[in-house]
Amino acid sequence: MLYQAYELGRAALTPYRFTAQMYQRMLNTPGNMFAETLAGRSMAAALDVFETSTRRYGKPNFEIAEIAINGQPVPVTEEIVWRNNWCQLLHFKRDPQLLKRLRKGERQDPKVLLIAPMSGHYATLLRGTVAAMLPEHDVYITDWADARMVPVMMGRFDLNDFIDTLMSMIRKLGPDSHVIAVCQPGPAALAATALLAERSDRCQPASLTIMGSPIDPRKSPTVPNELAQKKPLSWFQDNVIMTVPFPNPGFLRRVYPGFIQLSSFMGMNFDTHFEAQWRYFQQLVDGDGDNAAKHRKFYDEYLSVMDLTEEFYIQTIDEIFQRHLLPKREFRHRGQLVKLEEIRTTALMTIEGEKDDISGIGQTQAAHELCYNIPEKMRVDYIQPGVGHYGVFNGSRFRSEIQPRIRDFIRSNLTRSKK
Question: Quick one: 178 and 321 in the same domain?
Fold first, then answer.
């Protein structure tokens, strides 16, 4: 009933939101003398905070229209190159003719598959990651579907389906592609790479980069790790799994709702988010448009959430966070044991944040111990000082310190044929 109550609450607030928007427009009307007073600015700011805090945020757009290469603007268009019921593979296509002229006949940029987390937020959370990679890489990203929007007749989607989807997309990119897994998909990306390696698939990645990921959640456990460990699986099934209400397209589908995930993350850092909202209010009152716009841009993305299927969420909690099957070398994909030691020709890079409160230090590094047949010269482990979970894949530190390391790692492992 909680999901229904959530929907009813949103619906009940709709007229108040419209009223807040109407009064905002009145206060912002040119020539309105009251709007220029402290009381007027405070009232307009309060209405803005109320409206943005109670709004239901839909799926954002990437809005990457162009990038700069060698100081020249290059147009970027989005194209869907592969899809199934649960994901579409999105390609950020740079103008090929202009790119060829700027590259002056040099080799093509390496293909990179960026695996976005399916953990509550949309793939657009990696907008900054994509933008940082695009000038020097041919970038593709996994654009996962919101389970709330997928009709029940489309079937189930669990962790096995997730791994199958990754393997299909890696094959779509072809040989000598490079994979970057951000947070949640790390274990699945590792499993997919191992399965391709065991089959001697020519499309197994040339390199795999895993960032802030729970490969072994037993190391430096964080609050989410401890919660997943101490609660029985039945608790998650009884308390966080809900039925999608009418009139959503996924009506009657059992899901882990995005608003529950968002509430958990907000609760972990409540003081930080409260202070951010208070600063936003003050910025609006002071007329600090630039900082207010930055706040809106961040929270427009942060508050946009999607639902996960029950089977995917429960299987992930059970196998990754409770039984730790991957680091115990007991993880199976559709009954087949996943042998990480089969990975021999895919270079491996792990990246962690010093202050990561989601995936603690050592959890991602564990991949190196598990993939012991990868030659030492094809391994890189990096810990970024001073950043939390979000900073591992986005922000100024990512652009200036992490992304250049990923670029160099990929370019030192361009093809599998030389290994």
Answer: yes
pLDDT digits (tens, 9 = 90+) for 21-68: 887 888 777 777 777 788 888 888 888 888 888 777 788 899 999 999
Cβ proximity of 209 and 368 under 8 Å: no
Residues 70 and 187 in one domain: yes
Domain count, the chain: 2
Q: CA-CA distance, 63 to 390, in Å (whole number)?
A: 20
The string of pLDDT tens digits covering residues 358-374 is 999 999 999 999 999 99
Structure confidence by residue, pLDDT tens digits, 364-401: 999 999 999 999 999 999 999 999 998 999 999 999 99
My answer on whether 129 and 269 are in the same domain is: no
Q: State the pTM of this model.
A: 0.90
Output the 3-class SS for 125-140.
HHHHHHHHHHHHCEEE
57 with 121: CB under 8 angstroms? no
Q: Are residue 163 and residue 271 in the same domain, yes or no? A: no
| Residue 101 domain flag | yes
> What is the sign, positive or negative, of the torsion defined by CA atoms of 262, 208, 102, 77?
negative
Q: Is residue 265 part of a domain?
A: yes
Q: Residues 157-187, buried b or exposed e (16+ Cβ, 10 A)?
A: bbbbbbbbbbbebbbebebbbbbbbbbbbbb
Shared-domain flag, residues 295 and 318: no
Q: What is the CATH number of the domain that holds 324?
A: 3.40.50.1820
Which residues lie across from 382 on neighbouring strands?
A: 351
Which residue, 374, 48, 60, 65, is CA-closest to 197? 374
Helix (H, G, I), strand (E, B) or coil at 224: helix
**242 domain residue, yes or no:** no
Strands 207-211 and 347-353, sheet pairing = parallel
Question: Computed from CA positions of residues 146, 151, 155, 156, in that sequence, does the dihedral angle turn out positive or negative?
Answer: positive
Shared-domain flag, residues 97 and 138? yes
For the purposes of burial, counting CB atoms within 10 Å of the CB of 348, is it exposed (0-12), middle (13-18) or buried (19 or more)?
Answer: buried
- Kindly state whether residue 383 falls inside one of the protein's structural domains: yes
* DSSP label of 385: T
Residue 182 pairs with which residues in a beta bridge?
211
The answer to whether the CB of 208 falls within 8 A of the CB of 189 is yes
In this structure, the answer to whether residues 87 and 126 fall within a common structural domain is yes
